[in-house]
Design goal:
Strand order of the largest sheet: 1-3-2
Pfam family, one: HTH_17
GO molecular function, one term: DNA binding
Number of helices: 3
Order of helices and strands: EHHEEH
Protein name: Helix-turn-helix domain-containing protein
Domain Helix-turn-helix: 16-65
Number of strands: 3
Helix content: 40-55%
Number of domains: 1
Radius of gyration: 14 Å
Distance between the termini: 47 Å
Largest sheet: 3 strands, antiparallel
InterPro entries: HTH_17, SinI_DNA-bd
Length: 67
């Protein structure tokens, strides 16, 4: 029997997301997202050549930009 996801069931958030996923979350293009990483300090995790974003840190970063 599988468990059905409902509003009461918390969905697991991935530990890291791609830059493309980050762009979608921010409603931005990937080029602008890369600019934010390079010029505005959007926090990333580098794993070799892979660049990932921690969703929790992304949320805090966005909140700090609104102040």
């Amino acid at each position: 029997m599988t468990r059905q996801v409902t509003q009461d069931t918390p969905q697991e958030q991935p530990l890291l997301i791609t830059v493309e996923q980050t762009a979608k979350l921010l409603s931005l293009g990937t080029t602008k997202t890369w600019e934010l990483i390079a010029q505005e300090g959007l926090p990333v995790v580098r794993l070799g050549r892979a660049v990932r974003v921690n969703p929790k840190r992304l949320e805090k970063w966005v909140e700090s930009r609104g102040k």
